[in-house]
Amino acid sequence: MKQNTLKTLKFLSFFLLGILIFWWVYKDQDISRIKSILSNEVNYFWIAASVFLGMLSHISRTIRWNLMIEPLGHKPRTLNTFLAVMIGYLMNLALPRMGEISRCGVLSRYEKIPFTKLVGTVVLERLIDVLMLLLLLVIVIFTQFGQVIEFLNNNPEVQGKLEKILYSPILPVSLVLFFLVVWLSRHKIRASGLAQKVLGLFNQFAEGFRSIRNIKNKGAFVFHSVFIWVLYYLMLYCVFFSFEFTSHLTAWAGLTVFVLGSFGMVAPVQGGIGAWHFMVIEGLALYGIDKADGKVFALLAHGSTTVMLIVVGLIALLVLPFVNERSEKL
Fold it and tell me: To bridge 83 with a disulfide, which of 46, 65, 257, 316 should be the other Cys (CB 3.0-4.6 Å)?
């Protein structure tokens, strides 16, 4: 009961935070103007293309995850892995980072793969995604340096937070103290029964994390790791051609806006709601796009992706038990 209450409170707090940011971004907007633009001034062919590329990225992520699972001695059906991935995206809309746990739970149940090993592969996945995002950030900094400086100047609170993270001694000191305490207590920790259980789970997790070393088709793994992010970028850049006011922007501008928006998705709110919109609007403003127009752009770009994730995620939830029931009978 208490655990359910905590989960509910966590969900509500993250949801309200996202709604609050979203309201702050859109509170002064003319709703009738937004409706008029969405009804008369949008080329929805490019929205459909964006959604299609989004689906391709999820298929690519499915294939990459299967490549990571295979060295663990399991070969899950591609359809089950894909459905698990889509359910994970749906769960992320309910609670940030819940999707990673959910998709591991789904695949563990239907493919009989140890849950902890799957978590190890997903953590490795996320680490690779972070490295890809940092690589794109470096590219943006070198190619669009003026826009990056302008963004920091326009948002001093972001600049202040970055400086605090870089110069604060709290994190390194805390880590040193933590490892010192663990080292001094190592004999007592090892002797406890709980430690043995934790060590067993950690070994399973580490096995999943180390799966990258034994991937058979490393070329395919590298390809999909890059391809996923190329598709993410193209998803957003396609939307540029949906509006007349963004259709003239260059691919480099699209990359800058994409990277800023990606950092907005890292915020602890469901589906990046509010935070993603803010970052994209500010990114477009760097290239002369009026913020009122940027808000319409962000609303449609985020909304189309979210609707796709909800629809496909709900279908996955409904189809998954049926597909596996049929396969068991066969």
Answer: 316
> What residue numbers bound the domain in which 206 lies?
39-145+158-231+303-329
Instruction: Please count the structural domains in the chain.
Output: 1
Q: 269 lies in a domain?
A: no
Give CA–CA dist 119/269, Å, rounded.
Answer: 21
Q: Would you give the distance in Å from CA 113 to the centre of its chain? A: 24
Give pTM, 2 decimals.
Answer: 0.76
- For residues 284 and 318, the answer to whether their CB atoms sit within 8 Å is no
What's the pLDDT tens digit per position in 3-61?
555 544 554 454 454 455 554 455 556 677 677 777 888 899 999 999 999 999 999 99
Check if the beta carbon of residue 62 is closer than 8 Å to that of residue 220: no
Q: Is residue 246 part of a domain?
A: no
